[in-house]
Amino acid sequence: MTGLSRRRRLAAVAVIALAAVTASACSSSTDSPADGGAYLVWDPYPQFADDSEWVALLKKCGTSAGVSVERTGYDTTDLTNKALLAAQQGNSPDVLIVDNPVISTLAEAGALTTTDDNKLDVSAMEKNLLGAGQSGGKTYGVPIGANTLALYYNKDLLTSAGVDPAAITDWTSLTAALTKVKAKGKKGITFSAIGTEEGSFQFLPWFWGSGAQLTSLDSPQAVSALTLWTDWLKQGHAPNSVINNTQTTSWQEFATGNYAFAENGTWQLANAEKLGFPYGTIAIPASAGGPAPAPTGGEFVSIPVQKKTSRYETSQKLVACLTNADNLLTTDTTLSYVAPVAAVQERQATANPKLKVWVEAVRAAKGRTGDDLGTKYPKISESLWTAVQSSLSGGKSPQEALTAAQTAATTR
Fold first, then answer.
1. What are phi and psi of 27, to 5 degrees?
2. Spatial distance between the Cα atoms of 168 and 151, rounded to a whole number of angstroms
3. At residue 147, what are phi and psi to the nearest 5 degrees?
4. What is the mean pLDDT of each run of 10 residues along the chain (412 residues)?
5. Of 122, 171, 205, 271, which has the highest C-beta tally within 10 A?
6. pLDDT of residue 259
7. Cβ(325)–Cβ(344) under 8 Å?
8. How many CA atoms lie within 13 A of 355 on its CB side?
9. Is 176 exposed, middle or buried (0-12, 13-18, 19+ CB in 10 A)?
10. Alpha-carbon torsion (25, 311, 374, 327), positive or negative
């Protein structure tokens, strides 16, 4: 790619970012190009202070590479905007850690080096997780870990309803369990179907679990998935509140002890230990049985394009250090992530048997921007969550809602 064409692509992608970030933010000292022995690292973990284990690891990796590390943690959305602006202005950090769907946006803008360019070794990474960082047949980073979705359940409610969670293996057996719970006067399942990416994220296991593909939102399989959710509301198995639920408010409903199931993620594990009742987890079942592919959350560690290509060698050492097996285990435990490497996943499950279900869920998961969707995903997702909202609210039938979604996704 020529320098001129790269600048044009960056300018086009960064228009929104320019509107969102102030000039003063662009001129801060932490946004300046790294020089000398200092290497800049930007991450989406502002919750970790300078005295945290995460920052200690960054500095340790810097010491191992013979350099000092200057780290800045940003809010996820803010980080994306800043990364695009920095790439356009030629002052990107040396190492950038971003939410996995953002990789395709930065890659299309020409802001990231590929693993062929920077010599990062991704051979040990699970292919389904690595897919979220791939576009056009090239890989643009290394996954640092993954979270995903499963079903938490209230053991007391299932026992009183005569439901064996191990017998829930497909949609039919799950709906039968919800029916038994309702017969006992309790509530069945809560989830997030809000009209944002959270709603799409929570619907995708059912969508993919039906056999549907994001390139065909109105397929019979897709319609069956939306019909499942819509029927649950009609039959009283799920509350109308799911239409406005975030993943947090959905969890709060489950925490009342009145719901048998909640669809939620690994990030709730600490809160699950504080519940006033015993809980368990099972994989979200696919329509015909087995675990459904759930979407992956989590970040990628990438190496942005630099004017001084000689910096890549040290940046590669930093990333390799952050993603080696021992450091991945520590980091992923801190972040409540499942590691992207099978051997480390086994260590996690051995250390904490409750993670076994999550490891299985992550192994069956897939990236939202996978199947080479890249930057097409956001408009597909918006069309999808709009369809879910329309059907659950009774505005359209599942077929009508998804037909409209497919049209919107292909014409925007």
1. -100, 10
2. 11
3. -120, 165
4. 45 38 32 62 94 94 96 92 94 96 93 95 94 91 96 98 98 98 97 96 98 97 98 98 96 97 95 96 97 95 95 96 94 91 96 94 93 90 98 98 97 72
5. 205
6. 98
7. yes
8. 23
9. middle
10. negative
Please tell me whether residue 2 adopts helix, strand or coil conformation.
coil
Contact 121, 229 (CB under 8 A): no
Please tell me whether residue 147 adopts helix, strand or coil conformation: strand
How many Cα atoms are found within 13 Å in the side-chain-facing hemisphere of 62?
Answer: 18
286: left (phi over 0), alpha (psi -120 to 50) or beta: beta
Q: What stretches of 308-373 adopt beta strand conformation (E)? A: none
- Cα separation, 242 vs 354, whole angstroms: 27
CA atoms in the 13 A half-sphere facing the CB of 171: 20
Q: At what angle do helices 342-351 and 356-364 cross, to 10 degrees?
A: 160
Other C-beta atoms lying within 10 Å of the C-beta of residue 155: 14
Type of residue at 256: T
The residue type of 65 is A
Please report, as a single letter, which amino acid is at residue 267.
Answer: W
As a whole number of angstroms, the distance between CA 385 and CA 32 comes to 39
Residue that has been written with the tokens 């209230």 in this structure:
154
Side chain identity, residue 69: V
Bridge partners, residue 97, by sequence: 301
| Bridge partners, residue 40, by sequence | 70
CA atoms within 13 A on the CB side of 209: 32
pLDDT at residue 412, rounded to an integer: 60
CA distance 126 to 29: 37
Instruction: Report pLDDT for 13.
Output: 45
Please report, for residues 52, 83, 149, 223, 395, the alpha-carbon distance to residue 206 in angstroms, rounded to integers and kept in the order given: 38, 33, 11, 10, 21
Rounded to 10°, the helix 3-13/76-89 angle is 150
Question: At 78, which amino acid appears?
Answer: D
Q: Give Cβ neighbours of residue 49 (< 8 Å, ≥ 6 apart).
A: 55
Largest CA distance in the chain: 69
Cα 56 to Cα 61, 99, 173, 321: the distances in Å are 9, 21, 48, 13
* pTM across the whole model: 0.85
What single-letter amino acid sits at 279? Y
For tokens 């199947």, name the residue.
371
Which amino acid is residue 105, in one-letter code?
Answer: T
Instruction: Tell me the angle at which helices 377-392 and 197-209 cross, rounded to the nearest 10 degrees.
Output: 80
What backbone torsions phi and psi does residue 259 show, to the nearest 5 degrees?
-115, 140
